[in-house]
Write a structure and sequence with these properties.
The chain is of the alpha/beta class. The chain has a single domain (about 10-465), classed as Amidase signature (AS) enzymes, CATH 3.90.1300.10. It is built from 14 helices and 13 strands. The strands form 2 sheets. Strands 1-3-2-6-8-7-12-13-11-9-10 form an 11-stranded mixed sheet, with helices on both faces. The protein has a two-stranded antiparallel ribbon with strand order 4-5. Helix 2 (about 25-40) runs antiparallel to helix 3 (about 50-65) and helix 9 (about 305-325) crosses helix 11. The longest helix has 21 residues, at about 350-370.
């Protein structure tokens, strides 16, 4: 077969399964072979279950043979970030403090939806401890490495999922995003990552980071993410934030393009520092939207002191997370998380309530901005991937990773849908373009990302195609 099943998008796998030109078992074996080959060097997985994956693939193969697939992703290899509870597998959250020897009897909503759709679950991907930072290393699993350069970080906290996607270790990947944790590693590894409108995809157990936190797709193509959302964005009574009505078809209209759309372009989001290579690469990507017929103009949304608002939310919650760990186990915790928690513990109740009030005002201003524009384009990150074992490219202070991710967390605060789209390389490393939309207009963000992908196809790490 000329096509590499490990790198085939889910949309193509479904066509191959339907025609009988490939089978879910062949696709699962191709993905598992990739994991066996590349994971020892890149460390993207905390758990791989070959037996369970092949059992699920054989069941999917029988359904396709009878022409009775459960969904368009029946038999497609998928992974779950090890923040998300999964029946039969430990969910250790990158921490030595979680006891693996306990009952694991529940599937989170996203896992349940994937199983119902027939996806073949390969295993669980790595995360920093409790997803606390924008790179992926932990006391439990050590360092996860970027396939473009193993001496660089893939970002985080969904770094394992991003590496797995970039290297063909599965087609569909579940990540989480509380401050950019889907979009950051998507940018650093050159894949597509999408944080949809808050609540669009049900979550349970709810993250301690509250309404900052989202669960969503990480894929090698925009259409695969839309296909995945068709499955994930279905009601689940366990999430009281999530809509109770069935989700929309995110593939509908995805090919309609961006001609005539009002697109704002903010190169610094109000003065944030960006490295020259990133700035030039993203500026060139914006011209693609102009060539596609979008009406692009420079405009700066007023996000105010978003960094400080985010820190009050994130660091205070980190303090709650650490306080929930038994005192005799705290010596096992990532020192950076302990320091973040310490800083969070210095905030008063009044500080936190004021941050909540400021967040509501930020949301109002962002909504007002989108009265004039359909989409907003920004750099995804200030930098390209830096060295492993660091929290930031510069000597870190208490806020470290927040400083180089100023474009991501404002839209966790405002709850807008936002995607990272690969837009080129700077110094040989991937750069992401961020596309932000109005609340509930997730499909429009996907449509714009699809148009850009068609106009400027992205490439995978050389090691993925070697």
């Amino acid at each position: 077969m000329s096509i590499d099943l490990a790198l085939a998008p889910a949309t193509e796998l479904a066509r191959l399964f339907k025609s009988g030109k490939a089978s879910p078992v062949e696709a699962a074996k191709a993905a598992l072979a990739r994991i066996a080959r590349h994971n020892p060097a890149l460390n993207a997985f905390v758990l791989v279950d070959d037996a369970a994956a092949l059992k699920a693939a054989r069941a999917a193969e029988r359904r396709w043979a009878k022409k009775k697939p459960l969904s368009a992703i029946d038999g497609v290899p998928a992974t779950i970030k090890d923040i998300i509870v999964t029946k039969g597998w430990p969910t250790l959250r990158g921490s030595l403090t979680v006891d693996p020897h306990q009952a694991w009897n529940d599937d989170a909503p996203v896992v349940a939806r994937l199983r119902e759709a027939g996806a073949v679950l390969l295993g669980k991907t790595t995360t920093p401890e409790f997803g606390w930072k924008g790179v992926t290393d932990s006391p439990l699993t050590g360092i996860t490495r970027n396939p473009w350069n193993p001496e660089r970080t893939p970002g985080g906290s969904s770094g394992g999922a991003a590496v797995a996607a970039a290297m063909g270790m599965g087609a569909l990947h579940i990540g989480t995003d509380g401050g950019g944790s889907i979009r950051i590693p998507a940018s650093f590894t050159g894949i597509f990552g999408f944080k949809q409108t808050f609540g669009r995809v049900p979550a349970w157990p709810l993250s301690p980071f509250g309404t900052l936190a989202n669960v969503g797709p990480m894929t090698r193509s925009v259409a695969d993410a839309a296909l995945m959302l068709n499955v994930l964005a279905r009601p689940d009574w366990r999430d009281w934030y999530a809509p109770r009505r069935p989700g929309e078809d995110f593939l509908k209209g995805i090919k309609d393009g961006v001609k005539g759309l009002r697109v704002a372009w903010s190169p610094t989001l109000g003065g944030r520092r960006v490295t020259p290579g990133v700035a030039a690469t993203v500026a060139a990507a914006v011209k693609v939207f102009e060539a596609l017929g979008a009406r692009v103009e420079a405009a700066e949304p007023d996000i105010g002191p978003a960094d400080d608002i985010f820190m009050k939310h994130w660091f205070a919650t980190a303090n709650v997370v650490v306080e929930g760990i038994a005192p005799e186990k705290r010596h096992l915790v990532d020192p950076g998380l302990l320091e973040t928690a310490r800083v969070g513990g210095t905030y008063s109740t009044v500080d936190y309530i004021r941050a909540q009030m400021a967040r509501r005002e930020l949301g109002f201003r962002v909504n007002r901005f989108f009265e004039s524009y359909d989409l907003l384009l920004t750099p995804m990150l200030s930098v390209t991937a830096f060295g492993v074992g660091k929290v930031a490219p510069e000597p870190p202070g208490e806020r470290a990773w927040v400083d180089w991710t100023p474009f991501s967390h404002p839209f966790n605060l405002s709850r807008n849908p936002a995607a990272s789209v690969p837009c080129g390389l700077a110094d040989g490393l991937p750069v992401g373009l961020q596309i932000v939309g109005r609340h509930e207009e997730d499909a429009l963000v996907l449509r714009a990302a699809y148009a850009f992908e068609r106009a400027q196809p992205w490439r995978l790490p050389p090691a993925a195609t070697a």
